[in-house]
Design a protein that fits this description.
The chain has 141 residues and is an all-alpha fold. The chain has one domain. Helix content is 76%, strand content 0%.
Length: 141
Amino acid sequence: MATSAPAVAAPSRGLHFALWGVQILLALAFGMAGAMKITTPIADLAKNMAWAAELPNLVRFIGTSEFLGAVGLILPSALRIMPKLSGVAGAALTLVMVLAAGYHVMQHDPFSLMVPSLVLGALSAFVAWGRLAGAPIAPRA
């Protein structure tokens, strides 16, 4: 008696659409935030982020990471060239948001300042799961 492997259900179209929607929203959010941290003079950034004046290189690094993460959320999946990199970008942006939330905890900031980091981190984790396991995109043949 031959046994066959159980059939794995294909991911639903709804999940793909949800992932694409979240990827686009995250790419816009991280792309704009990253571009702002890269291009805005440190003195202007320090008006809203007091730590920017103390750690200008860190601000530029975070901005570059966010911008490249935004690109990574879209291009690999859209071009279907190494599309798992979109999941990796989601995981990396999740880490950035966990570190941002940790910073707010260390500074004893009110919870309301952590909410954006937590929401963006959760959405990034959803993309990481979705593109690495839940509904991966097949690479171009």
